[in-house]
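Reopening this ticket.

The earlier resolution said the output was attached, but the attachment link was broken on my side. Pasting everything inline this time so it's all in one place.
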Amino acid sequence: MQISLNSIGSLLTGFVFITSISSLTLKTKNVIFEDGDSIILNCTYFKINTEYIAYRTIKWQKLIGDVFRNIALFSPPGGYRPYIPYEMQPFYNNRTELIAPNISRSAVMIIKDPICSDQGVYRCWIEYYSENSVKEQTSGSVVKLKSNPKEPEKFQLFPNELDEKQSISILCSANVGSPLGNIKIWKISQYNDTPVLLHESEATTNETGKCTEFIDVHITYTVTRVDNGALFRCSSQNNMTQGPGPYKDSLKISVLYVPDKPVITLTPLKSLYFVGDYLTIQCITDSNPPPVFTWKFQPQNKSLETVIKKSPDISKLVFDTLKTTDSGTYSCMATNAARLNSANVTSSVSIYVSHSEISNQGCNQCGYITVCQQYDGKTECVTNKWVPIAIVFILISVSFAVASIVLIKNKSASQDDGGYQAHAEIANTHVYSALQSHQAETGVYTTLPSHQPETGVYTSLQSHHPETGVYTSLQSHQPETGAYTSLQSNQPETAAYTSLQSHQPETGVYTSLQFHKPETGVYTSLQSHQPETGLYTSLQSHKPETGVYTSLQSQRPETDEYTSLQSQRPETGEHGSLQSHKPETGEYTSIDNVS
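Inline output:
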């Protein structure tokens, strides 16, 4: 039963009958209960000593149909026990507790495990005596169930893909709770997240065993192309819900529609185009599935039309440099595979490409190092970018030729005893080169110093072959990277000696190598330091055929690991010593091996 508060108030007022003004008053409250609660009806009265209440004249009544019927009778303090009338016992026995008035003067009826029919309009009614007359007093109480709405149990759309102007069927079922629940159907566009209300059901009564309302809604909705990609929502709510209640969303629908008549745009937009201009012609339309564009071209003053492009993706024609032969009419036709019988739609645009009227006169003004360029009907003389490159190349060639002549003259002037020396200094670059060579048939001697202040590079090479007590010395320094290399080599047939030092400041790596083979009292010494990792390695080796001696030391600052190895085999009173320390684990190893 659905009863509004206004109708309840009018109804209660109609049943209040007071024979005269009295000081006795009643106090009751409306009751809203939830699942699992009990209904507590409390009637509290206030009276003066001259007012008298007879036994069993305090009553709780319920409106059944159009009449209030007694459901519980009470007596004032000290009177009979309260009871439920015989005709009402099937409805309230075993689930009702009655509390008689005492010093609190309250008649209380507690209904346990409420059922749907317990909702309704109740009143407290008291008959009493005052000033030698019988009087009555009443006070009403409305009992309602509060039950939260549930998420829709079923929400279906059919079909999910359809043509525009067709209808989609929407079905939603939900437990909307109580009181006065309903279902709402919404649409949410792919372009706007704000839901739009399409339908709101009436608050109908189809009560379940838990005093809630279950509603089924079935509507149809005619779609348009703007509904493509939209989704629908079904929400469940009642009078106790603040805003839309629990909801369920559908999948997005696909609305198929053919292209509109295309719109053609020109970028830049002008009334007249000139040779050399840039132009983009674009065809714009919308459809689902996406449109396929076909471009056709009809040259100016000709009737033959040809297809120049057909593509489902590219809607543009791009001209980097217009020509007079580009004049004519361009047509764009848009089609797609939508299941609708509709003619293909086409739009056209005409353009005219003209020569500049001042082109010949303007080009005559250009000099030797400029070229003539036309754009937007204007002629401009712009510098030829290859001219500066050619000038630089010529200057470099001349400088190289002068340097070669100087070197040749110095060579001719300094030839003596079959030997020669050459010296060159190239002005403006400060490059210095000196070459000396002496072959005293053939106590060959060669020296080459080279210095380039522009880069700071320095190179020195010395070589001596006294047939053949070969001696070679090479030094190289590159300030750009800070790299330094020094190499010395001596092979007096062949008590070979080699010394190499290399330093690369860019990485901090330092390497020193010494090597000696007095055929072959081999001696090798290697030191290497890599600041990037902090790794240091020292290696010494001696084999006096073969009183082998080897010493290796290695340290890794990254882990603080240290390794020392010594070995000697005086054929073969072998002696081996290995020491290893790993601070990370505190592990220390020492091995001696003597044979």
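Reporter confirms the inline version is readable. The chain has four domains: 5-145, 154-256, 263-354, 393-594. Residues 386-414 form the longest helix (29 residues).
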